[in-house]
Design goal:
By secondary structure, this protein is α+β, with helices and mostly antiparallel strands. The protein is built from five helices and eleven strands; from the N terminus they run ββββββααββαββαβα. Strands 3, 6, 7, 8, 9, 10 and 11 form a seven-stranded antiparallel beta sheet that branches. It has a two-stranded antiparallel ribbon with strand order 1-2.
Amino acid sequence: MEGDNAYLCEELGKRVPAVKRSVIKQLPQMLCVHLKRFEFDYHSQTRYKVRDRFEFPLEIDMFKYTADGLAAADQQQKAGEQQQKQLQRTTSSSAGSTGSESGQLQRRGSTAAIDKVSGGCNYMYDLMGIVVHSGSAFTGHYYSFIKERTQSTAGDGRSSSSRSGSSDSSSSCSSGPPPRQWYSFDDKQVSAWDITNLEYECFGGKPSQDSDARGPPKRNEYDRAHSAYMLFYERRQAAAGSAAAASSDGSQQQQQQQQARAEGSQMQSEQLSISGRAN
């Protein structure tokens, strides 16, 4: 914002150049992304569906979109500017060694600041659900792909997440949660779904835009009628924390039950003792 569009600062009483940005202050546990596939053409006064190709990841780091990420980026930029000024004051003979050392210090400081602010998995999200629309802006069909909440059952009848105990909560942020099965929910039909079909089923666009497409685009090629409409990402640490909380609640409940049984046994023994003295 500059020139005629400069920001009016009430404290200074004049217009000053400024940068207007929108960032996220607090992230939710479940991040819902609406792709806005439907638009309205004011010239033709008709609705239409946006069928362009849109790619989205299986995991996303939201740190740079938050207020903390913006503060860390500004801090890194200011540190770089200050070090650049210091380098300009040095002599040409010592500029090379000083520059390499200061560059290393800058990278270490910025990385440490980001690690300190980001808090590990707090900003990492994993794709958990997709709502797909097939059709036009006037008619169509909705169905979804959903990732199971717990891991698939194994031979002993227990889920691998329950066998692993606390290993899920201690897993690294880079590796993400263990693989879980995806399912397709289409009206009454529920079936297993392969995540490798994500590009074909959800990205939309023309078939020639696929990563495995061969040759140039075909003549009179149309965009796919089916494409992702809404995306649901779950915070990675929140999922591990909920499992740990559930385990803690179960342990507390078990302790309370054991204490209640012990108190009941003590009361019964006291009643038997009293009745024995009365006889």
